[in-house]
Design a protein that fits this description.
mainly alpha; 671 residues; Amino acid/polyamine transporter I; 2 domains; 66% helix; disordered C terminus; five-stranded antiparallel beta sheet; elongated; 5% strand
Length: 671
Amino acid sequence: MSKPRKIKSTLNSGVIVPSLIFIVGICLASAIFPATVNEGLNIVKNFIFVNLNWVYVWSVTIFVLFLIFLMFSKYGDIKLGRNDSSPDYSFFSWISMLFAAGMGIGLMYFSVAEPMQHYSNEIFSKNTYVNSAKNAQLYTFFHWGIHAWAIYGMVGLALSYFAYRYKLPLSLRSCLYPLLKNKIQGRWGNAIDVFALCSTFFGITTTLGFGVVQINSGLEILNIVPSTSFTYQILIVVTLVTISVISATTGVDKGVRILSNINIMIVILLMLFVLFLGPTVYLIGSFTEGIGNYINNFFSLTFNTHVYEEASLPWFYNWTILYWAWWISWSPFVGLFIAKISKGRSIREFIAAVLILPTVFNFMWMSVFGNSAIWLDNHVAEGALSALANNPDALMFRFLEYLPLTKIISFMVIAIIMIFFVTSADSGMFVMNSIATKNAKISPKWQIAGWGILLAVLALFLLNAGGLDALQSMTLITALPFSIIIIIMIACLLKALSIDKKYYEQEFSVSTVPWSGKFWKDRLKQIVTVDSQSDIDKYIDDIAKPAIMELQNEFNQNNVEAKINECNDPKFIEIEIQYDLLNNFIYGVRNESKEVPEYFQTEENLSNIEEGKAFFPLAYFGDARQGYDVKFFTKDELIADILKHYERFVTIISEEKNEMFISSNANRRMR
């Protein structure tokens, strides 16, 4: 009997060692000296928010404008992958997963709390009820809308593009390839990944901590547990992290996808319940007016630094700037996860989906819950909900007490938070493992589970010691340097897209001579007949193969090493010349079929149709450009066609600007 194969760790020491030292060090300091560490980090955070808030404002604005530009530009049709690649997930599953990873727990935590806090804030409460309610909705839309998703989308797009188009590792280091070139494999690349891993870990830990507290609060209100003690928080964390580990070790295709699909459907049901059993007409009207208000104020909100309104500056720092810093600090995690599930989408499809669909849903969600709470507070609760504005842990559940079926809906809310907890944790495990292994394709399950255990232990450690606030401050501070890194990513992405577009649009030489009309009678016979599979196999054997073999011989005589790849099932033959570039030069001919319409099958000259299909020899290329039918080509014409593609290829690779396409591990063939 053979010995079972030992599964080795795929962790990269250059990333994991400094990351763990920093993560554990910060967590220990935050737990042992929570007050001191939090005070010191708060000083740094407040200095950044007060003196460098313009960096966040300009960065987020640039992200939004750049993505909108890309969506409508000539680069929008470029695929995140080969030109012939297709998405790995259905559109619904894709949207569900990116939504669950991006804002799940936050939406449950702040959907009632944030609008209520804006509504009851003294800055807005000086106005009338109408203006206070409108401003509460407007700023909630602003913080949870296009700007937030532009941050996630920018990082996710850069990662997807360089990973699937350039065949580089799915890692933040790859996004700086046009600038650093091969240095991304060394210390510079490791430093970027260490930063991403620490930022991801801190962001997930603090968010999961908030989720645990809210779940515990809801269970206490429902009399499931007697208090919000640390003992019950341990039970909640152990239970949910165990589920997360099981989900993560089953893979994205099963665990994360299934949970995300289930949760998005439950979320929609909950939203519809509140919409139809709450003040329905008011909610629909306020949502409609809120969209218009948001569009009308979009640019003024985007560029507003409140410099002329000193009284509102503390609010501006504690809300808008904090949100921008929070989204930026979360972007390595969410961006990596979005990139992992977005292969095969076009840039235009990616941007439109990531910017618009989650934004519209967020607006609907915030309108239904936030505006319902404000309406109930003003018409029914007589200020009881606004009085709880500073207790966001319990506010959602107190709000539900004013709706029918309170207990059932409260249990549903807890279930949603738990599933969001699980999807955030298991997707976080995937992302952290991906960063720590330089995107290893296969990692042992115990290694993925280890990230979940580390998350649970340190989150509980900080919850017990009161160190979550310090960790949150640390997370927000890291957003400043990362905002600059994302801007550099934009420059790198724009440079790469420009080269990409020129590469695939490179024209043939004007010296290329098309096939002549010498054999027009034979071609007429070919045009009016339909070939069978065996006919095309014969064409490949009699025309394509001799042409490619003759050309290979000539290449070899000119000191160009060319090899022939062929197969009989499916039938194809190709010539390949290796250059260690993004794509080797490949020109092949394969037997391809196409459907023939039923009305056309009745023609007398179509006796060779097999099961409603016609066959033809398709020319294809190593860089996945669109192929074409070559059945009318003679041997010499086929050789000429191969040479014109080879001339185009040599012209492209001889230009220095295309150096970015060089990647020794990038060659893949698609037949």
